[in-house]
Amino acid sequence: MAPRRKCNVCGSQHWHKEPATGLVVCSEGHVLQNYLTETYETYEHGALQGRKRALKSTREKRGRTSKANSELYYGARAQYLHFQCLQLLLRKQVAVLIQLWKLPNEFEIICRDLWALHLSSLPSPPPPEPLLHQQATRGHNGDHDSEEIDEQVEKASPELSGVSPPEDDDSKDDSVIDELLRALSESSSSEDSRNDDKGQPRPKPEGSGRKLKLFGSNGPASNVALLMVACWTLRLPIMYLDLIRLIESYNLPYLEPLHHLPATMVRHLTKHNVQALSPAHAPTTLGLHSLTARLARRLLGSYKVHTPELNAAPMLWRVVRALGGGPVLYNLGKTVAHVLSLPLTLHHTLAPRLAHLKDDDPGSHKFDNVPPELALLVAVVIVLKMVYGLDGQARVPKNSIDPVCALPRLKDYLTILKGVKETYMRSNQVAFSASSNISVLELEESALDEYLELCQRGLLGPETLRSDQRTLQDFFPLKSGRVGASSEKTAIERLEEDQRVPRAGVPMEGGTEQREPGEAYAVYSSRDVLGVLPEDMGVVISYGARWIGVDDETILKVSEGYERRLSTWLGRQKRREGIEGRRWSS
């Protein structure tokens, strides 16, 4: 056994190796000098070292299967399909109106042009769905750069595989490498320029998280507004309530639109599309007027397409006849409407501005943006208030040449109005409307058949029933004639010949004379929620509001504004007459 070395410092023979540093030190901690530690590390496996080889598993991994319906459309395709459904519904609505109202074929052409302009003027028009879907499925043009390079390599490979001299091979290799480098440089430079110039990412494929404003306010109500603009273009004297009644009777395709769409389109609709296409109820008069006015303003601002004015003469005559009036009331209502400067356009901005007699004169009046039929109705109501008062006190003209003498007495007029109202409320369109509270048990036998037809149109749709569903129609057919149809004259026909001229100057009880028409005119404030209208006034207001399709408060609000405007005009006329009288006297 070889003797151990002694420490040069302390002479100790006890040595140990530090595990951390690898130095050899004695028991006293002195380091052994001139000692070299060598380690041999290799990263190559030896010839006889065993290796563990991992084989690729052939078992297919179970991925997460999507339970989504592949037939449903989302994103741009859903928006495009939404407008396709609206267009098909519009075509069916146009066909129904042409058949019911005997409209000319030009009505369909006008609706088609208005539909094209409507789509072009939208803030977010329908996207080009076929192009977007093609980009989503096939990718963007920039993704094909590598494929083009691979095709160039494949075209160049046959040339490289051919037998040629060494110098030719080198030259061909250089040319191929130059072409590949040039293609790579062009693709990279084009991508850099696109990123620098646009600063926007390329279009993402469909369903990649891009949020779109799918429907907004472009629902079935916009189709009805477009139909209204088309009717104004043909100068048809129709009201908004005419279309609403057709919708509530399921004659005009609006409610339950899935019955009017083919199955090939319905199966691609999501629940959000169905909800956007299926309104719960018919539109209101004021809401429909707002959409129609917005469409007319957009057409004028974008394409300079001017919507004609209202055909006021037949519309005013409809209003007068609805209130039980005649030609005299028509002339008086036309005069009041002229004094009030009622605009006959869909929006007051589409009408000419008012004449500026002074610098502070306004260009338009308040309540000029109400539906035109509502404005004409309020004008006729103002005439009735001036003629009859409708406040419990009779008005009798003292001059025999007063046109009021040609009107019936107040008692006779209220009888006519109540008869007209009763006939109107018993009509099937009003009885079957959403605002009616009538029960089926209260219907007459003549109305039950039409009610069953209404239920069939609303529940089953316009499609022809199958052979197994025609049992009732085959074995229990209904008679063509209506049971219980009465041929009695209406209230207007019964009392039209008995419109007696009121006597002038009849003294009231107590020796006081009666007031003249237009005297002590009362203006009712619409903000007085605790106020109670007189009975006669309430009858006229409630029936007029029901006939137009608005509430009583709207009639009172518009009437108050027009009455104050008329009072201002009357004050100006009196001041002008006083000035002219002083000029003549001087």
Count the strands? 2
Largest β-sheet summary: 2 strands, antiparallel
What form results from the Cα inertia axes?
elongated
Number of helical stretches of at least 4 residues:
20
Beta-strand residue fraction: under 5%
The oligomerization state is single chain
Structural class: mainly alpha
Can you offer a commentary on this structure?
This is RRN7-type domain-containing protein. InterPro entries: Rrn7_cyclin_C, Rrn7_cyclin_N, TAF1B/Rrn7. GO terms for molecular function: RNA polymerase I core promoter sequence-specific DNA binding; zinc ion binding. Residues 86-155, 184-262 form the Rrn7/TAF1B N-terminal cyclin domain. It is found in: Nucleus, Nucleolus. By secondary structure, the protein is mainly α. Among the domains are: 1-38, no CATH class; 76-128 and 213-303, no CATH class; 312-354 and 362-407 and 502-579, no CATH class. The chain has helices at 76-101, 106-120, 129-138, 145-161, 166-197, 220-233, 240-248, 263-266, 271-277, 285-303, 312-322, 327-340, 372-388, 410-425, 428-431, 445-459, 471-475, 491-495, 535-548, 552-585, and strands at 15-17, 24-26. Strands 1-2 form a two-stranded antiparallel ribbon. A hairpin with a 6-residue loop joins strand 1 and strand 2 (24-26). It is elongated, with a radius of gyration of 44 Å. The N and C termini lie far apart (159 Å). The model is unreliable at 142-150, 152-167, 188-214, 464-468 and 480-512 (pLDDT under 50).
